[in-house]
């Protein structure tokens, strides 16, 4: 199991709509670990929503906050952590993930159309500034793919229900 193998954290990466938060919460419950969401931690720490931070500090300001918050969270144990979809754009984030030996990074993948569809079905689309810029969405997704693929493991979720994805995720990390 995850405990027996000395794993300290599972980190979920992938584009918006990949299911990082939904599956992360369920996986944490399954393992008896804590769940943390990088976006939520940043919002709580700053007292601003993600959209507010983008407006006030620009995307660069948000990326800097992501990098800093990740460093704080990666010290924790028995944690499932959902990254934001764009966190891997920062070299500092990629370096931290590569250096964190006892954490398992899992890439939740799906075709872009399915990801966008899932985002639009969820409440809070307005809280996703990157989703609003539909023109740039495909190029951003394509640019991030090689970074997502640096994960240790990958789970393709297309055609899977959330329950099926969870079972597959548990089997991967256990
Ligand atoms: C972003 C994804 C969001 C959030 C922010 C920027 C992105 O996270 O970090 O809105 O650049 O793709 P989710 O992947 O949880 O939506």
Automatic annotation (TrEMBL):
Chemical reaction(s) catalysed: shikimate + ATP = 3-phosphoshikimate + ADP + H(+)
Top EC class of this enzyme: transferase
Pathway: Metabolic intermediate biosynthesis; chorismate biosynthesis; chorismate from D-erythrose 4-phosphate and phosphoenolpyruvate: step 5/7
EC number annotated for this UniProt entry: 2.7.1.71
Co-factor remark: Binds 1 Mg(2+) ion per subunit.
Keywords: Amino-acid biosynthesis, Aromatic amino acid biosynthesis, ATP-binding, Cytoplasm, Kinase, Magnesium, Metal-binding, Nucleotide-binding, Transferase
GO biological process, one term: chorismate biosynthetic process
GO CC term, one of those recorded: cytosol
Cofactor(s) named in the record: Mg(2+)
Domain of life (superkingdom): Bacteria
Binding site for ATP: 17-22, 128
Binding site for substrate: 39, 63, 85, 144
Gene Ontology terms for molecular function: ATP binding; magnesium ion binding; shikimate kinase activity
Main location: cytoplasm
Summary of the function given for this chain in its UniProt record: Catalyzes the specific phosphorylation of the 3-hydroxyl group of shikimic acid using ATP as a cosubstrate.
Family indicated by similarity: Belongs to the shikimate kinase family.
Protein name: Shikimate kinase
Residues of the full protein shown: 22 to 195 of 209
């Amino acid at each position: 199991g995850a405990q027996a193998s000395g794993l300290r954290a599972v980190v979920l990466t992938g584009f918006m709509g990949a299911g990082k938060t939904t599956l992360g919460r369920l996986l944490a419950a399954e393992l008896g670990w804590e769940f943390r969401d990088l976006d939520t931690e940043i919002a709580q720490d700053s007292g601003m929503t993600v959209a507010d931070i983008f407006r006030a500090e620009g995307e660069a300001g948000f990326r800097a906050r992501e990098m800093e918050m990740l460093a704080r969270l990666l010290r924790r144990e028995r944690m499932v952590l959902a990254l934001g979809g764009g966190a891997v754009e920062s070299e500092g984030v990629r370096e931290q993930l590569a250096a964190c030996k006892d954490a398992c990074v899992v890439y939740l993948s799906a075709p872009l159309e399915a990801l966008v569809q899932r985002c639009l079905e969820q409440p809070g689309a307005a809280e996703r500034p990157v989703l609003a810029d539909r023109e740039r969405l495909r190029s951003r997704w394509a640019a991030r793919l090689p970074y997502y693929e640096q994960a240790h493991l990958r789970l393709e979720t297309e055609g899977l229900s959330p329950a099926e994805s969870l079972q597959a995720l548990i089997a991967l990390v256990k």
